[in-house]
Amino acid sequence: MHRIVMLATLLLVISLTPPATWGNGVPVHLFLNYLPDLSNWGPETASGTAVVAVGEGYVTVKVQGMARLTDARYQIWLIPREGESIAVGKFDVDATGRAEFKATKLTLPALVYKLLVVTVEPEPDTSPQPDGRRSLIGRFPDPALKGVTNGATPAGASTTADQPLPPAMPRNLPVTGGVTDDQCLR
């Protein structure tokens, strides 16, 4: 029951978020998780948060539960709805699997972004594209879904493979550190 209330609250906040926050400089807060439909590498219990402010040119990421790498590094990518992936920066985790990353003075295009993806990149990395090893992923609010509930497709919205609509109920909820289910029953 508690998870349903949390999900309803999250959906309400997203539906009330003005479209101006979707990539023009107003900071967007994202939950990062291992998403079974997109992630394919690393601990499934890893999680984190990110703040992306396109107009101000900064991105911060905090992660925990990540695997320590020896011959590779984690890299943060912004994936726009259309166009090429944008590399934000690389980081390593400490012995406990935690890291805090901050990049400032970035020149980020004012686009509609759909994902922030943390990949595992070889060192040295000669490719300008993201590696196929995707760990944590955060989804940006989708402006095409503003006001849409129950997974309905808005008029004119695409349901192609490159722009899938999220299901009405996600398979996994983000780990936010709130009250556990058994604490709600007390």
Distance between the termini: 13 Å
Structural class: mainly beta
Q: Would you identify the regions where 5 or more consecutive residues have pLDDT less than 50?
A: 17-23, 149-163
Instruction: Tell me the total number of β-strands.
Output: 8
Give, in order, the helices and strands: HEEEEEEEEH
Globally, the shape reads globular
Strand content: 25-35%
Q: What portion of residues is helical? A: 10-25%
- Main sheet properties: 4 strands, antiparallel
* Arrangement of strands in the largest sheet: 1-2-3-6
Structure characterization notes:
With 186 residues, this protein is mainly beta. It is built from two helices and eight strands, in the order αββββββββα. The chain is globular, with a radius of gyration of 17 Å. The two termini are 13 Å apart.
